[in-house]
From TrEMBL:
SMART domains: PDZ. Residues 366-368 are annotated as: PDZ binding. PROSITE patterns: PDZ, SPOIVB. Keywords: Hydrolase, Protease, Serine protease. Residues 161-400 form the Peptidase S55 domain. This is SpoIVB peptidase. The lineage of its organism: Bacteria, Bacillati, Bacillota, Bacilli, Bacillales. Residues 76-135 form the PDZ domain. GO terms for molecular function: hydrolase activity. It comes from Bacillus lumedeiriae. It comes from the Bacteria. The active site is at residues 209, 336, 351. Its EC number is 3.4.21.116.
Length: 401
């Protein structure tokens, strides 16, 4: 055999050996992992009789991973389930632009705001270097700038960026006043359902989803807000293709139950002055993590008449053990005949109704399926707790503090 053939043969042997080693190594790793997994199960089973509180410590000393920190924290958290109908009042950060309108000027119909590049969904936070929070604060700036024929220096918050624009008011020939051609809003209101109250911190969570502006469809960035008592006056029953709705009333001058400090994808959050009134449940319940939620029967708490909170039966059709926050963690179906007769299933205003399963608060109702009002989505309670600042891990607790 010459040197060239010997070299080729040797290379082939080495390549085959390398591949074989990879296969054997992979097999051994899997076998080792399986053995360790079985060993951990056997060890856990052997010490289970000593009590669950000792399991984690012994496993840790034995070299196994300790129990999930969240699960340990969740066992200590207890919340009072809500179900009450609440009125929600939000004050926006600055003044929200919800539309353009045309001003009838000597040069024809124009929108000064649109010409200045101001968009629907923009938030006006300052004019001429001064902070603005209310719609009525803008009018004096507009009239003065119009009379002086000077543009307004407008500071805008758009998509988490600060933008500056020059906005020149134009005189309306109909009423001889200066206008900027923008529809604006500084507040929003609606109804929802209280999900939970944590008695130690007095923190609460409600609604289970973000509040968006009715015109822009964008989440409302809030300065502050409050929740008040609400009374359900009637129900518009849901039908296929037409979600129903709770019709409720609340007074803007009612004593507030609590404040609103956060409007997030998982609901609205803040603190209550005292335990929520008119609750069906007075004692606190433990909470369940997403992996503890099971398909099968559950109950919700909600109001369909007046201020009376009642139990209703639902079925958890599917649930996702979420490692990371998600707004649609489970699908539920209303099975309670009484609730179906009254509402047709899930209706608007029911968002935030707490879901209870096996003696634990597992989440809240959030959305209805338009083509099947008997069914909808729910959010897992752990993500609402996290948004409320009731942390399930030490690292999150340190950050919150």
């Amino acid at each position: 055999m010459n040197k060239r053939k010997f070299s080729i043969a040797t290379g082939g042997i080495l390549l085959v050996s390398f591949v074989v080693c990879l296969i054997i190594g992979s097999f051994m790793n899997r076998a080792y992992a399986a053995d360790m997994n079985n060993l951990e199960k056997e060890t856990r089973s052997a010490i289970e009789e000593q009590g669950s509180d000792n399991v984690n410590g012994i496993l840790q000393l034995a070299g196994f991973s300790k129990e999930n920190e969240k699960a340990a924290a969740a066992r200590e958290i207890r919340v009072i389930p809500g179900g009450q109908s609440i009125g929600i009042k939000l004050n926006t950060m600055g003044v929200l632009v919800v539309g353009h309108h045309l001003v009838d000027t000597v040069d024809g119909k124009q929108s000064p705001g649109e010409k200045a590049g101001i968009r629907v969904g923009d938030i006006i936070t300052e004019i001429n270097g001064k902070k603005v929070e209310k719609m009525q604060e803008i009018r004096p700036f507009v009239q003065q700038a119009g009379q002086e024929t000077e543009p307004l220096k407008v500071t805008i918050y758009r998509n988490k960026k600060v933008i500056h624009a020059a906005l020149k008011p134009m005189k309306d020939e109909n009423d001889q006043s200066f206008k900027i051609g923008l529809y604006i809003r500084d507040s929003a209101s609606g109804i929802g359902t209280l999900t939970f109250f944590e008695p130690n911190s007095k923190k609460y969570g409600a609604l289970g989803h973000v509040i968006a502006d009715a015109d822009t469809r964008k989440p409302i960035i809030i300065e502050n807000g409050e929740i008040v008592k609400s009374k359900v006056t009637s129900i518009e029953k849901g039908r296929n293709g037409n979600p129903g709705e709770k019709l409720a009333q609340f007074s803007t001058d009612q004593n507030k139950l609590g404040n609103i400090t956060r409007n997030s994808p998982y609901g609205v959050f803040g603190q209550l002055k005292q335990p929520p009134p008119n609750g069906l449940i007075k004692e606190s319940y433990p909470v369940a993590l997403s992996h503890e939620v099971k398909e099968g029967p559950a109950k919700i708490l909600t109001v369909v008449n007046g201020e009376k909170v009642e139990w209703y039966d639902v079925e958890i059709v599917s649930t996702i053990p979420q490692k990371y926050p998600g707004t649609k963690g489970m699908v539920l179906k209303v099975t309670d005949k009484e609730l179906l007769d009254k509402t047709g299933g899930i209706v608007q205003g029911m968002s935030g109704s707490p879901i209870i399963q096996n003696g634990k608060v597992i989440g809240a109702v959030t959305h209805v399926f338009v083509n099947d009002p008997t069914s909808g989505y729910g959010v897992h309670i752990e993500w609402m707790l996290n948004e409320a600042g009731i942390s399930l891990t030490k690292s999150e607790q340190n950050e919150a503090s």
